[in-house]
């Protein structure tokens, strides 16, 4: 009794389809947890980087100096990336045109591209988490239904149906559902948490982009007024 | 992907996060979950399995039963001796009409007194040896064969079974006599007179050496002549005696069995004994039946009185319960009355007790199946509980306590009064073993 009803024993004695379902669920669970950990680290790091960059940006440093200090564009992350893309475009357009509107349009477009890349980076694999969260209960349910089908098929061949003959089958079938829920519940929780966090980060980037845009706009206005005068 | 590789190849403070550590963490988490489930489940599983059926089994009634029987025998023996002494004092002067038969009875009565019996047996053995020699010298084939048989059997019986057999039978006979006394006073008187005559004869023989010599000679003569003659005489007497009394018949038959049964036909003897036993059994059954009816009526009357005071629903429920109990007791006492052996009565009483104790037993949670406790129960004459003590502990104090509480809750065992008096004494003290079995 004790031995035959233990969870490893039940898993080992399950039918092939149920075992396959269990394997899929275990893999899904492991991968979802990999994503959870990786995203958590990424977001925490992005938050810190954004914090330190904003401190530096608002510390009154010269923008040209800041631009020179930051590494090349491919290496930068988050708001720094947005700043670099926008400032580079600003410098390039300043040399070519006098029109403030054209410069600001170019800068805004460039920053939007950078922001979009950041969004893609932050929400990477979160869709997989959502898939696991929504699909694994159904996969587990499929395994349970399949296992109970098998149990009833074998029950039809038994002489007398006692609880003792049905119980192991149902138990091992229900393990599939349990594993589906085991994979889905953390995936749901962390998908919600991570997606809201990344949304928040992206909102901060957007705010920064707007602020940087207003700074550049102020600069251009002052320059055009000085040129006019 | 390419970005991630580059990030890991050039690690910086703001570098991209690799997948190595998350994979390790995720796998470690799953392994931890599996280990916890495997390790903790075996510890958790024994708990739901404790829902189990109670199995209380009674053990070792034999020891107490044996003691009670021995005490019973001793009591019966003492009573028989006292009765015979009384009879002897009263009827000392009377003479016996049949010398040989009285001699046999006298020897049998002597057998009940150990010191005298040994002496008498020695004398008998000597006499029989002498008789055997004489028979051989006379060279009568049939008589010789019977004499040899008699000697062999007498020696066997006297040397091997000797005291134990005769005392036991004497005790049983005395017990039966006392029962018959209540109903058949006249026959009992007559029997006592005859026994007293036998005693007188024995005393005279002890006092007068010549008298005993003559008796021995008469006995030898009788043996020598033919056993068939004695048998014919005894059968004629048995016919008259059986009509007079059942007890004296059994007495004479037992005596014949001790002395001359092998010489006579074994079938006639067995038949007579069976008849006597059946007679006694019938009387005992009638007695038990009357007792049982009286008990049942009294119980019913008491139940009704108590029920009138209760509320209507409670009254009905109690009535149903008591009716069930009455039925159980009636069936119980019926089976007891019909039981030829005390063991059957014992088993049915044991079953009743066991059922009551099982119903009253609340197994403590967490008790495993392997536990076993033995409780010694002492009962009063009417079935009330005198004491319950643990004789063999299970090691679990709460388990032991639950066993004792079960016995206390199940007491009193009023069914004890329904048992025959001999069986009652046997069940004043018995052991109960408590073992929780499981459902399967």
From TrEMBL, chain A:
Query: What NCBIfam families has UniProt attached to this entry?
Result: tolQ
* Name of the protein described by the UniProt record: Tol-Pal system protein TolQ
- Location(s), subcellular: Cell inner membrane; Cell membrane
Superkingdom, taxonomy of origin: Bacteria
InterPro entries found in the cross-reference section: ExbB/TolQ_transport, MotA_ExbB_proton_chnl, Tol-Pal_TolQ
Q: Domain MotA/TolQ/ExbB proton channel, which positions?
A: 80-206
What are the protein's UniProt keywords? Cell cycle, Cell division, Cell inner membrane, Cell membrane, Membrane, Transmembrane, Transmembrane helix
> Subunit details for this protein?
The Tol-Pal system is composed of five core proteins: the inner membrane proteins TolA, TolQ and TolR, the periplasmic protein TolB and the outer membrane protein Pal. They form a network linking the inner and outer membranes and the peptidoglycan layer.
Protein purpose: Part of the Tol-Pal system, which plays a role in outer membrane invagination during cell division and is important for maintaining outer membrane integrity.
Q: Where is the signal peptide?
A: none
Record field: transmembrane: 20-42, 126-149, 169-191
Its placement in the membrane is given as: Multi-pass membrane protein
Where is it mainly found?
A: membrane
Family recorded in the similarity comment:
Belongs to the ExbB/TolQ family.
Q: Which HAMAP family match?
A: TolQ (MF_02202)
TrEMBL record, chain B:
**Which regions span the lipid bilayer?**
21-41
Biased composition regions of type Basic and acidic residues, renumbered to the chain: 69-318
Q: Where is this region: Disordered?
A: 42-327
Family matches, as InterPro entries? Tol-Pal_TolA, TonB/TolA_C
The alphabetized UniProt keywords are: Membrane, Transmembrane, Transmembrane helix
| Cell compartments where the protein resides | Membrane
Please name one Pfam family that this protein belongs to.
TonB_2
Under the heading Gene3D superfamilies, the entry gives: 3.30.1150.10
Q: How does it sit in the membrane?
A: Single-pass membrane protein
* Transit peptide keyword on record: no
Entry annotated with the keyword Membrane: yes
Main location per UniProt? membrane
Q: Where is the composition biased (Polar residues)?
A: 48-66
What domain of life does the native source organism fall in? Bacteria
Could you identify this protein by its name? Cell envelope integrity protein TolA
Q: Which species expresses this protein natively? A: Billgrantia bachuensis
Organism lineage string: Bacteria, Pseudomonadati, Pseudomonadota, Gammaproteobacteria, Oceanospirillales
